[in-house]
Amino acid sequence: MRDSVKIAVENFRSGLNCAQAIVKIHDESKVEQYSEFGAGNAPEGMCGALFGGLGILEDDEVRSKLRSEFEKAAGSAKCIRFTKDRRLPCKDRVALVQKILDELK
After folding, report:
1. Residues 18, 90 contacting (CB under 8 angstroms)
2. Which tens digit of pLDDT belongs to each residue from 37-78?
3. What b/e string do you get for 6-32 counting C-beta neighbours within 10 Å, with b at 16 or more?
4. What does the alpha-carbon distance between residue 44 and residue 77 come to, in Å, rounded to a whole number?
5. SS3 breakdown of the chain: % helix, strand, coil, rounded to 5?
6. Looking only at Cα atoms, what is the longest distance across the chain?
């Protein structure tokens, strides 16, 4: 596991929500802005980790790649899908988003 992925998971385990766990690695000044976007509260019920990852990216093409790669690996972008099916826990989605972000750099 890459250091950034470990840090993202540690951020989540320390009490940040999934969106904040991702954002903190990339822009600590925006962490508080993402305080309401965990636990399925991102727009359209999107996974908060994915929402956080999309939020730190500026290039639309890279944002599209992140979303596409996440959906391919996870099967959905919707948080409810994971909680309902009890698959891919939040910490694993945080790790997945950070792993994809690392690969897109």
Report:
1. yes
2. 998 899 999 999 999 999 999 999 999 999 999 999 999 999
3. eebbebbeeebbbbbbbbbbbeeeebe
4. 10
5. 70, 0, 25
6. 34
